[in-house]
Design brief:
11 helices, mainly alpha, globular
């Protein structure tokens, strides 16, 4: 297990290095206006001096090497246009608690709704709840998220008689953003839990339990759900990535002062230093979720081995 985990961590770090290198290189092809405030008022000499001061006049490999060297010391650079010359980490640290709060609430809500929906779909295969859940899942996967996000904001705020924008002092304004960020994960949990429970229901040990006279409720709760939940555990940390993706648009839509809304803002302002810092954080969170998924699955079911032949990943 330790050997496998070490390999996963090494591969995750390697993947993160590739992502950082690609994002860093692509941003260097962006217009240089993103590194200056009041670019139109600067002379050519001032622009060249500014580029030299930031090290942007050096070859790309040298710039990338210097960036990684500073990154190892926790230095992600300074903001150029969002907040001039303010360290990037100082800005991000202010936003992290808000994003974490909304992320945890949305994941908790997704589990509270998604798991029961998946169980109902599996227990009533071909009946109302199964058809209802299938329609919901297809709708969430087929319709662009931006569309139903807007509908939720427009009609939800009217129904609840609240402002369209987030207010930290009014928890009622948190409801719609949390629901919006949860919908993708609700569909995700329900779809996979139903699939795993239906697969388990057709196995021999379930037929044996029925032959012994156990009720359908006991079979589903004590046997089917327990075994179906093991592979589901792997997807729970992965859902962090879905939450992050949703938060980028939802936070901007409701003017929530988190990292998702910040990313949209700095892209609009062409603050390339801020953009690459936020991409690094989001990529790290997504990769960490994948590693935690495998680790949690081993903890929940010790029978699973990633090192034995036949169980290798």
């Amino acid at each position: 297990m330790i050997k496998y985990l070490a390999k996963r961590i090494f591969r995750s770090i390697f993947t993160l290095i590739i992502i950082i290198s690609v994002v860093f290189s692509l941003l260097r092809f962006m217009p240089i206006e993103g590194y200056f405030q009041n670019f139109d008022k600067l002379t050519e000499a001032q622009i060249q001096a500014g580029l030299s001061n930031m090290g942007l006049d050096q070859p790309l490999p040298v710039q990338l090497f210097n960036f990684f060297k500073n990154l190892l010391h926790g230095d992600l650079g300074v903001s150029r246009t969002y907040r001039t010359n303010v360290p990037v980490m100082d800005i991000i640290v202010e936003k992290i608690p808000v994003s974490v709060q909304f992320g945890l609430m949305s994941i908790a809500f997704s589990m509270l709704v998604g798991f029961p929906l998946g169980i109902l779909m599996a227990r009533s295969k071909g009946k109302f709840w199964d058809k209802f859940g299938t329609v919901f899942i297809v709708f969430i996967q087929a319709v662009p998220a931006a569309v139903y996000y807007l509908f939720i904001q427009i009609y939800g705020t009217e129904l609840l008689d609240i402002s369209m924008l987030y207010n930290a002092n009014r928890p009622i304004t948190w409801v719609l953003p949390v629901i919006s960020m949860s919908l993708g994960n609700i569909a995700y949990y329900a779809m996979w839990l139903r699939r795993y429970m239906v697969d388990e229901s057709n196995k021999d040990y379930v037929r044996l339990a029925r032959a012994k006279g156990l009720s359908q409720g006991k079979i589903m709760s004590k046997h089917v759900f327990r075994n179906a939940f093991v592979p589901m555990v792997q997807y729970i940390p992965n859902s962090i990535l879905n939450t992050v993706i949703g938060s980028i648009y939802v936070e901007s839509l409701y003017s929530i002062p988190g990292m998702g809304g910040l990313l949209v803002n700095v892209i609009q302002k062409q603050d390339n230093t801020m953009v690459q810092a936020l991409v690094i954080i989001f990529a790290s969170v997504g990769i960490l979720g994948l590693v935690l998924g495998d680790l949690l699955m081993c903890i929940v079911d010790p029978r699973i081995s990633f090192t034995k032949k036949g169980g290798a990943r």
